[in-house]
Amino acid sequence: MLKWLPENVSTYGGRVDDIFYLIFYITAISCVLVLLGLVYFIFKYRARQGGRAVSLHGNTTLEILWTIVPAAVFVMLGFMSRAVWSDIRYTLPETDLRVKVTGSQFNWLMTYPGLDGQLGTQDDVTQENLLHAPVNRPVRVVLASKDVIHSFFLPHFRLKQDAVPGREIEVWFEATRTGRYEIPCAELCGFGHSNMKGYLKVDSAEEFETWAREKKAFP
Predict the structure, then answer these.
(1) Interaxial angle between packed helices 13-44 and 60-85, expressed in degrees from 0 to 180 and rounded to the nearest 10
(2) Angle of CA points 140, 149, 165, to nearest 5°
């Protein structure tokens, strides 16, 4: 299998990759078949000395087939994609780890709920451009924006969602491997867009508990 996506380190990333590669191979095979057919017809019906034009009225059976088959493929892909999308976006897991990420020109502000476990209270803990999360535990992220549309992008997690002014949009991920992963802004948001970059630090359970206690970021 071709590999040009970054390594997947999330629980649902594999399902996203499966859909991506399925669509890729279907379109690649279709493209090759169409191009081969084009070359064949160019050669077969090329201009020849003394050749005579022939009037063709088409083939109803072929026209039905090349309409029904692509339509069936599109419907199949639609149902498969819908199932994955529903599990990722519409089914938020129960977890005690919720963080608010606010985009602004040109940084990410991470807000942790503090010891009371509630976002938007006086003991919230903030940190710029560095999001901490434990491995093998779901984390819910509340996205917001102070100014323009930004896009919260975790390529290794197959997670991408716009942060829209005036709205709070909740997404989630569950890391399967510790490490440090880039969080670029994937939406052109102004002159300093290319420098808007944060990081997700996925810690082991012990490292995360130690950090959370020191920062008083979670109860």
Answers:
(1) 160
(2) 75
Q: How far apart, in whole angstroms, are the C-alpha atoms of residue 135 and residue 9?
A: 10
Interatomic CA distance for residues 108 and 61, integer angstroms: 57
Give the amino acid at 127. Q
Kind and range of the H or E run holding 25:
helix 13-44
Average pLDDT value for the chain: 93
Q: Under DSSP, is residue 209 helix (H, G, I), strand (E, B) or coil? A: helix
**Summary count for the chain: helices (H), strands (E):** 3, 10
Q: What are the pLDDT digits (tens) for 17-33?
A: 999 999 999 999 999 99
Give the tens place of pLDDT for each residue, 162-212.
Answer: 999 999 999 999 999 999 999 999 999 999 999 999 999 999 999 999 999
Neighbours of 200 (CB within 10 A): 23
Measured in degrees and rounded to the nearest 5, phi and psi for residue 157 equal: -110, -5
